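hey team, just a heads up i'm posting the complex here instead of the shared drive bc the drive is being weird again. everything in one block, sequence lines first with there labels, then the predicted structure for the whole assembly after. its two chains so it's a bit long, scroll down
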Amino acid sequence: MNKNKEQLLNKRYKAEKRFRLYGQSAIFMALIFLTIFIFKIFSTGYSAFKKTWLIVPVTFDAELMMLEQNPSKEDLEDADYYDIALKSMADLDPNANEDQENELKRMVSYFFEREIKRELLNDPSLIGKTKDVYLTASDDLDQVFKGNYPRDLPEDQRRVTDYQLKIFDQLVELGKVESKFNLSFFTYPDSREAELAGIASSFMGSIFSILVCLMIAFPVAVLAAIYLEEFAPKNRFTDFIEVNINNLAAVPSIVFGLLGLGILLAVFQLPRSTPLVGGITLSLMTLPTIIIACRASLKAVPPSIREAALAMGASKMQTTMHHTVPLSMPGTLSGTIIGLAQALGETAPLILIGMVAFVNTIPGSPLDPAASLPVQIYIWAESAERGFVEKVSACIMVLLGFLIIMNLFAQIIRHKFEKKWS
Amino acid sequence: MKKNGVKMIKISSKNVDVFYGKKQALFNINLDIEENQVTALIGPSGCGKSTFLRCLNRMNDVIDICRVKGQIMINDFDINDKSCDVVRLREKIGMVFQKPNPFPKTIYENISYGPTIHGMAQSKNEMDEIVETSLKKAALWEEVQDRLHEPGTGLSGGQQQRLCIARAISVKPEVILMDEPCSALDPIATAQIEELIDELKKDHTIIIVTHSMAQAARVSQNTGFFHLGELIEHGSTDKIFKNPENKKTQDYITGRFG
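-- predicted structure starts here --
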């Protein structure tokens, strides 16, 4: 009898041990996947935050720039920089023939002319002198310098020619190639050239979309939630509404995109590809999330607080506005932020309303065409150039960082302002 | 208060029935409550005494499925009449609940809330005065006067309940309803509240629901005994406890059931 009991007890302990082990291995697996995922993104993406520059001596020849004596600021603006830019690249190899000169030119970005111009505008006394100017290297050389480019491929299978590599290696040896923090990744809009592509346009697009989404979804959702939770009679009709709000939260986002396309663009003729339309579409998606969060936190306010206020002679409205709603705000706000974070990562509906268009300007308002961060990732992931690979990962890093900050903020609000009940 | 030797009736209920959906919770309650006296409602759990209490300030309105029939006259005015404004009614009839439920705000704000929404103070000074007198009447002033702007939820259970009483009396109600106000408190805090109730009856009519017969005997002048939704017996506390007419009352009081 006693022995039997002991066996039973042992069995119970073993079962618990096994269960713990299952749980631990599940967590371990999840952590492994997460680590691989993050490691992959960081190892591919970190190099995008560096940019390779070629340091090229440029002679600011007044004659080549078609400049008169003592040029004014306007003259400098209008001067012709193409020739000196071309010449300084060609001068890298004095023996180059015409084809090779062309190849030399393609070692830097097509912004080289602008970069040289900026140098002179900053310091007009450079006219007639020679100065080392930092020029953005072409995306292929950038990748070569970062070690991401397979140099051992046969020449006809790569975009960098042997000649370019030879000159580039000479420059590296002379210390004329430098890698610096890639500020332009954050300040430039999208570009077809990987070395000039940045996230400024999509970042601003995302911000504007989220703001529009917040301004529409938050008030509507909070009012709907307060009415449903505190004022609406409990009957079949409100039950029906509640079920449908929950269903709405589960509707695939692309359906909302179709709605935006069919109604906002087709019927209301709102401007295509704009954060305004994107934000309205996203707000439809965020609405149920906020309503559910707000109702849950209204429900969490203890009935004793409502009773206390009602018994003091507060009206229903006063009870709600003075007590219930303020007490539910931390939960509502953190729910809102989580909903916005979801909207921030949404791609499909934005593609449908045209925010996938190539936008090489930075939007100044929600009415300007823009992309958004996740759509930017999609656009770059589709591009063939090797230079975009690291950009995709870098853009994911920015988006993840953004999301982490938002979720952190939601946590802080929840913990800081949550009241403890008596 | 006695006028010409006759006790004044403050609240009078006639044929009150209460239903929760299809279930009837109170059957034909006829009970008169005397002014400036403490009336205790006793009875086993689920007998309907709290339900009756909540009829008096129409807190049952909050419960969707609850229906109240019959007449409840306060100052000769039917509170179930359509013309009765529930906000005005609750200003006149304060309530203290079973569990202390201060607002999660400061002590000062807890007290000033009622006077604010009813527009009872014209200036900050007046409000300060209301807060002070309310807290003094609730015998809490000495303990909290230095921390009026700290959260009310930081007080001990007994202090919180006195804060709730202070909050209830801040709007100078004629009647105070107390729903088992001491059930969550220790004996010392209970004694303080009982003392307070005795003091408050000078200015207010008090109706207290309690599970403790000793408490009913200590604080009340009148007692009503409820059982299964019916008012079995009511009368002066002395009579109910010493010489009950009904067998059930006697059984309950002597602890044979309940």
